[in-house]
Amino acid sequence: MATVQTLDKIRESLERHLGKKILLKANKGRKQIITKKGILEKVYPSVFVVKLESDNEGCSRVSYSYSDLLTSNVKLQVFKNQDKLHVS
């Protein structure tokens, strides 16, 4: 079972990547996996927020809990070359 310290370590590791471009893979159930590019925008005590790349004028944001990362329902990959992605 996940402890508070484990979730705190996940949050601290995400804080080091604030503002960086990431690839987000989220399991939405029934074999539906979405893959989006975005920027890690905010880190809160219970959740983190990703600003997604959008094709239109509007911008969308999604939030997930740290337990989603722990259970592998959500996976994040930080781009090594931070010039690859442009999010408005």
From TrEMBL:
Native species: Romboutsia ilealis
Q: What is this protein called?
A: Veg protein
Q: Name a single GO biological process.
A: regulation of DNA-templated transcription
Organism's domain of life?
Answer: Bacteria
